[in-house]
Every structure is written in structure tokens, then in C-alpha cells.
Amino acid sequence: xxxxxxxxxxxxxxxxxxxxxxxxxxxxxxxxxxxxxxxxxxxxxxxxxxxxxxxxxxxxxxxxxxxxxxxxxxxxxxxxxxxxxxxxxxxxxxxxxxxxxxxxxxxxxxxxxxxxxxxxxxxxxxxxxxxxxxxxxxxxxxxxxxxxxxxxxxxxxxxxxxxxxxxxxxxxxxxxxxxxxxxxxxxxxxxxxxxxxxxxxxxxxxxxxxxxxxxxxxxxxxxxxxxxxxxxxxxxxxxxxxxxxxxxxxxxxxxxxxxxxxxxxxxxxxxxxxxxxxxxxxxxxxxxxxxxxxxxxxxxxxxxxxxxxxxxxxxxxxxxxx
Length: 322
Ligand code: FPP
Ligand code: MG
Description:
It is a single chain. This protein has 322 residues and is mostly helical. It has a single domain (3-319), classed as Farnesyl Diphosphate Synthase, CATH 1.10.600. The protein has 16 helices and two strands. It has helices spanning 9-26, 30-40, 46-55, 63-87, 99-103, 105-126, 130-152, 160-185, 190-217, 220-223, 229-232, 238-246, 250-257, 264-276, 279-296, 304-319, and strands spanning 92-93, 96-97. The chain has a two-stranded antiparallel ribbon. Bound molecules: farnesyl diphosphate and magnesium ion. Magnesium ion binds at residues 84, 88, 90. Farnesyl diphosphate (FPP) binds at residues 76, 79-81, 83-84, 87-88, 112, 116, 140, 143-144, 147, 170-171, 211, 225, 229.
């Protein structure tokens, strides 16, 4: 399914302008521009789209006013991915060779830092206020805690609670914050802002569960990432947790996923064991439950046309192949 085609015409126009603004923002230093341009191209733009849609709850919203904040959101996300690819030693991202694979980790760290600094420059220049800065700094803090927690528990099997804590920190709080920031831009009341933040949180949980599934069941030409990447880097996710508790071959699987130098054929073996269990069905069921919770959290105050797109996004998240 094509994500962009699910969006209404107005959002698509916003996206075209957003992409132009993002490119202009990162192009201002020649070499850094060359490094960063491919990094900011090709993403789904899910986070700024959520922000825009929630901000549009205010019929008189000013696109020009909120555009820099939407850009900052996408740049923070891209910066985190650039750093994540260094941590995971990933070679492919968004269908392109990663910055660390192309330029080495030194330049990649600095490119991520640059995008991050640019994001906060836009936020300062936009004078969005302390509340916005606080939400952004908290979400970045949570991203870091999520990554550190993950890094400290590589090659060990997390409990379900630990897994959920990690995906909240890594993904769900970010999506929730985008909705909250949009609601704040639209001056929605506290209850509606909270409901939209809850929608984003559940959407984020479903998004990360599907992401973790795609690592085993996805098509690399669609995801733009190689298969079994999480296993190779020692990140144990829900499909493995489930297969370990259900498979007849759980001892073999446990040996494989806790091995720090797993070979390609062992990765293929682990994926096979996971595929033979009910893991895919189970993870989809859990992701669906979060999508259901996301849907019921949409406040009545928001326009039905916006609601429809938020529902379509939920549908995309659950059915996506990339
Ligand atoms: C992708 O997860 C990575 C993240 C969701 C967050 C990464 C965060 C940091 C590196 C810390 C924050 C840094 C800055 C500069 C803001 P994944 O590895 O599960 O997904 P993937 O398969 O797409 O790599
Ligand atoms: Mg990664």
C-alpha cells in the first residue's frame, strides 16, 4: 500500500512544501549538505504528518508558523536514525547506503549532530515556547534512554515488560509527542490533547511491533533494510520472545539469538524457527490491539476529515510492508 496516496490532497501539498523546506535547511553547508541530503530523503514523514494533522484541528492554523517545527521533528528523527545506524553497524537505510557505511562513523556522528543542532535552531527561531521545547527535549531524552537500555541488554532475552518499556522509549513516545505538539499548536483543550497523545502512543507501539516483525518477515527491497538485522546486532524483539515461549525448537533458538557472532546461515535458521511458530500471527494480533486502542482515543472535537486520515494512518501502520 502506498502511504502517501492514503493522505488527503491538502496533506500531500503540505508534504511537498515540507520536503522542500527540509532540503533547503540541510543544504546550507556544502559538504554537510552533500552528506545529509540523501539522509533526509525517502522517509515516510510519519512524524511530521501526525503533527500537521493534529495541528489542523485549528481551522485557522498557520502552515508557515508550524512548518519549522514539523521540519525540526523530522530532523530529530533523521539524526536519531543516523546515530542508530552507527550503533547497529547498518549499511542500508531508506533504500540508500547509510552515512556510516559511506563516510565512516566519525563523519556520520557529526552529520547526526548537525541535523540535531539544526532542529533546535529551527525551534528557537520559531519561538514556540517552553512547553514545546520541554516535550522535544523529553522525547530525545527518552530516545537515548531507550537506546542505552537496548545496548546494555544486547543478546539477552527481555521480559515482555522490558520489551514494552523499550519500544515506548524508542518509538511510541516520539509519535505520541508529535500528536501532542500538533494539539498544542491547535490550542486544543487538555482532554483532547491527552486523547491525541494516547492515539500516538498506541500507534507508536503498533508501529514498532510491525517494524520488529518486518525484520524477520519483510522484503528487503521494500523495507530498504537487510533481513535479520536485529538478530545480528543482538536486539531481541517480540517475534523472538514469542517464538521462544512457543516453539518446540526454543532451546536451539535461544542458543542462536544469544550468540554474539551469529553467522548468516544461523540467522536463516533462527528466522526459520520463528516462521514455524505462531509468532507472526501473535505479533500482528498485539499490534492490532494497539491500533484498536488508538482508534478509540480519537477525540470528538477533531474534524471528521482529519479523523479519517488518522484512521488511514493507523491502517497503514498495521498493513505496511516498508
Ligand atoms: C531505530 O530503531 C532507532 C530509533 C527509534 C532511535 C535511535 C535513537 C538514538 C540513536 C538516540 C538519539 C539520538 C539523537 C541524535 C536524537 P531500530 O534500530 O529498532 O529500527 P531500524 O530497524 O529502523 O534501525
Ligand atoms: Mg537500527
